[in-house]
Amino acid sequence: MSYREHENKMSIHSSTRRLARCFGLNQCMSRSSNSISRVSPHLLNAILAATQRLDFSLSPSKSIAKLKAHRWSLKGDAQYFIMITVSGLSLWFCGLHWLIKIGLIILYTTALLVPLTSQFFLPASPIFTWVILFFSNRYIPMSFRSKIHIWVSILPTLESVLYGANISDILTRYTHPLLDILAWLPYGVLHFVLPFVVAIFLFVFGGPGAVKFYGKALGYMNLSGVVIQIFFPCAPPWYELSHGITPANYDMPGEAGGLARIDAIFHSQGYTTTFRNSPIVFGAFPSLHAGFATLEALFLSHYFPRWRVFYWTYAFILYWSTMYLTHHYLVDLVAGGALAVASFYLFLTEDQRHLPMLNASIAGEEDSIAKGYHSGIRGMLGHRGANGTWSRIRHNDGTEDPAEDFEFDHLFLDDQLRLRDEEELLGDRSATGLRKTSLDTLP
């Protein structure tokens, strides 16, 4: 074995030992050193840190105690009144049997009381509220619906006035099976998959509060969009192609538009059947497809800015696909994107605004196992320790420091990690001078 090969092997072994020391895995290193060395330290670090943040308790008394200790305020808790009101009305109009309705209420209440499940269900409550409102829309009494006018020509007119032409009509004049597939992938596949992928990435790499922020922004954006679609129903481009400017009514079924070509390619009726039974047929404005893509691009750009070009490329491809498949006008996309931007900045707290990226490699910063955070974070610690845990700066009297003036020198930390590795590589256990640093005080 050459000297360089020996040096590389020792370097890998040293990195593995260092990672194990961070997570307290020294006792099992003899059995798993080879497998751990093949796993990215950043990924393993982030996953274990995210797992450590979970509450595995099953005791409802813990959640009840938190509820009793909660300080209620109109500004912070009005959202719960909104969600309860919307969900209650949706269940009232919903055509499900009353036993099923009661069962859903009991199951959801139980999920909120159990700490293990409440940490997921509570942040997702705005999303669940939107989902139940969307699917219960078909049960809204016709006596109420008949009073709401369906706008057929307002969107193409606005598009022509604002942009000088009917952009969506221009984009649909030439079709091709390859373009159909290219439009279908973001519109019919990624649109439903990416929200879960983004949520997982934010949970693992985004730090405390990121998923809660995402759930609020996504849920209330869609909830607002559906409310607009109910009280301001507008016909999509496929209606203009099929019926012209004929007045619409709620007895008309939905159409798949350009997605009918996807059904033809795959010899199926999936999209045709789905859109024919859609709860909201005249929901062109605003485009929640555009809202989803814009919000996902905003979140990923905020937490992982290194790849922002790819996020926004996907968003613009989806914008094009919604018009190419005759489901939205350009003005719908502008409204959906504006709704996403408003929702993002409305729920962006000061902590999340200044929160640096947890995964340094994804963020495009320097490579290190423990990344320091050198920007002020109100109410949070300015760094995350090498073991992946979060903590707060506390004074001797128990008060918390907002850490606005705290600066953590991550380059200094990298130097100390390198020196420690060199010390272990040389086997010089007596060189304690190199270890006498702030590194030993990390959690």
Question: Explain this structure to me?
Answer:
The chain has about 450 residues and is mainly α. It has two domains: about 40 residues, no CATH class; about 280 residues, no CATH class. Helix content is about 60%, strand content about 0%. The chain is built from 22 helices and no strands. Helix 13 crosses helix 19. The chain is globular and about 70 Å long. Keywords: Membrane, Transmembrane, Transmembrane helix. This is AcidPPc domain-containing protein.
In short:
This is AcidPPc domain-containing protein. The chain crosses the membrane at residues 80-100, 106-136, 148-165, 185-205, 217-239, 280-300, 307-323, 329-348. The protein has helices spanning 3-23, 29-37, 41-52, 60-69, 74-93, 98-113, 115-121, 125-136, 142-145, 154-163, 167-171, 177-205, 210-231, 237-243, 259-266, 270-276, 288-303, 308-324, 330-346, 350-353, 360-363, 410-426.
Radius of gyration: 27 Å
Would you count the extended β strands for me? Answer: 0
Structural class: mainly alpha
Percent strand equals under 5%
Quickly count the domains: 2
Question: What characterizes the major β-sheet?
Answer: none
Helices and strands, in N-to-C order?
A: HHHHHHHHHHHHHHHHHHHHHH
Mean model confidence by pLDDT: 76
Overall shape:
globular
CA distance, first residue to last residue: 38 Å
Number of helices: 22
| Percentage of residues assigned to helices | 55-70%
Low-confidence stretches: 3-13, 15-39, 356-417, 428-432, 434-443
